[in-house]
Amino acid sequence: MMVSTTKSKGLPKASGAVKKAVGSYGKDKEALIQVLLDLQAVFGWLPPGVLREVSEQLDVPVVQVYRIASYYKAFSLQPRGRHIIKVCMGTACQVRRSPQLLNTISAVLKMKPCETSTDGRFTLETVNCLGCCAMGPVVAIDDVYHSNPSTADLQKVFESAE
Ligand code: FES
Known about the structure:
This protein has 162 residues and is an alpha+beta fold. It has two domains: 58 residues, no CATH class; 78 residues, Glutaredoxin (3-Layer(aba) Sandwich), CATH 3.40.30. It contains seven helices and four strands, in the order H-H-H-H-E-H-H-E-E-E-H. The chain starts with 13 loop residues before the first helix and ends with a helix. The relative contact order is 0.13. FE2/S2 (inorganic) cluster binds next to helix 5.
């Protein structure tokens, strides 16, 4: 999901979505992480306005909300692409040339790791292990794992992604 503002078409406004998330946990401050997970799922990232609303509605200091939101990898403070590309840079994949795979993907999409394409289609990330080391080097495009894909394979997948 690509979101540029909290008022994007088809998405709930920040305050309504936050009210719903906070309410579903009985406004319990201890549920801060769960609330943020729910909102990450709704918006695809955690916009500043959402974090401020969470702080107000949960009565938790905004600094604490930001601390949690920036600590866990499950949260994103930047808009993300509709398709998430995760290149494994774990040891087993590195020895099987995952850095070269990352370079190939960067070149094909003309973007660096941690970037989101300007058209909002892709976010390129690196991860430490995808849990299938024997398949390395591995790249996960959304939930589909690709073992040592060729440049042509990658181009085909990227072209078919809307
Ligand atoms: S190191 Fe790449 S999947 Fe485990």
